[in-house]
Amino acid sequence: MCQRAGLPKSTAMLTVDQARERAQTIVEQARRAGADAADAVFAADAALEVSVRLGKLEDVGRSESADLGLRVFVGKRSASVSTSDLSDTALATLVERAVAMAREAPEDDWAGLAPTERLLHGAPPLLDLDDTACGTAPPTPEALRDLALAAEAAALDVPGVTNSEGGGASAAQSVWALATSHGFAGAYSTTSYGVSASVLAGEGGGMQRDYAHHAARRRDKLDAAAAIGRQAGERAVRRLSPGRLTSGSMPIVFDPRVGGSLIGHLVGAIGGGAITRRTSFLLDALGSQILPSNLSVRDDPHRPHGLRSRPFDGEGLAVSPAAIVENGMLETWLLDSAAARQLGLEPTGHAARGIGGAPGVTTGNLYLDGGKVPLATLLAEVGEGVYVTELIGQGVNSVTGDYSRGAAGFRIVGGEIAEPVAEFTIAGNLKDMYRNMTAANDLVFRYGVNVPTLRVDGMTVAGG
């Protein structure tokens, strides 16, 4: 594992040390201007994207940005401002404006910086998030073009694929820094790479579309472009000539690429904002069983080269692997400092900070653990049901947990995946869905939220 010294030169990028110093400087200026406390975020990134269609280059785009956000406190009053103009004159004006705004803002008993004793001190963990630290050169536009072409070509080679929406490849580098007036200053850099393909199968009104995509922090962890394209083509062909479902109650099996959304709804329900506003369907669930006793939901922000790994949270607190749900029991809310103060609890190291505004919450690399059932067994136990590969719409009530989504996928017949089906709706309540969940043993880490194949018994299907 290599230690990061600094990002390659770019008109928008600074080294990690320079980014940290930029955030510290603006905090010091805010204190001199009359702020009782302050924190600042500096973020810069440079990205290169290439897209192709039907074997020809369509677009090459490069973007660079650098932004700074400042939050100041005057007593119990606070204000946040941000800018992409990093000139000395603009930053001096920004500081003056922020302090003036804070003096006029309403008081907030809960707002403020994180507890001093909880700040990360010492060297942050090495998470291998930036592969240029090990000498990997950024890819050229030609190299990305070749990846995109290879992905699309492999997809078009699949029998039954008739057209393409294109292939793409991308590479990006970023640096993120946070400084506070009570003793924290940290920064880290990341790289990310992606390859995708999206194609159509069939003809006329019976055409079906599907895609495949893979993203990774390190280039050597990225799936082969041809494999990504082939997967996109095979997925599109499998969806041809979909049938319709008869309405009724039946088991639903969620493919891993859509099953992660179920855990996403759980995260939204246990965030500090939802709990303090009392707008969560899990409002009274802390310390109670919400999943079967063999299942746990774990958060690992220290996973090497993880898509959501980070050495500290958006308030400068140390982050560490934790069980959000342990053996089915909900163990914690996800709290930034303001929500924690309002609830009389401690912040959990899940604060998320953007350039503007106050912190929210997020997780690191989240995954559902404990699945023991082989996929073939899980399907055999279903007998007759539906295997869902696509979810449509946003029909989830975060207050009641009522769940209703459009879907497409495949019929399960005799415990095996059979013909494609489309234009149906699946419905239930998330509390019941979580309790009636069975997990296969096919967990693979590919996304920010990773789950194995999931079966939820007793859902309602409304056929088209």
Automatic annotation (TrEMBL):
Organism field: Sphingomonas metalli
Single GO term (MF): metallopeptidase activity
Domain named Metalloprotease TldD/E N-terminal: residues: 47-102
Domain Metalloprotease TldD/E central: residue ranges: 138-240
Family matches, as Pfam families: PmbA_TldD_1st, PmbA_TldD_2nd, PmbA_TldD_3rd
Protein name (record): Modulator protein
InterPro entries referenced in this protein's UniProt entry, alphabetically: Metalloprtase-TldD/E_C, Metalloprtase-TldD/E_cen_dom, Metalloprtase-TldD/E_N, PmbA, TldD/PmbA_N, TldD/PmbA_sf
Family to which this protein belongs: Belongs to the peptidase U62 family.
Domain Metalloprotease TldD/E C-terminal: 247-463
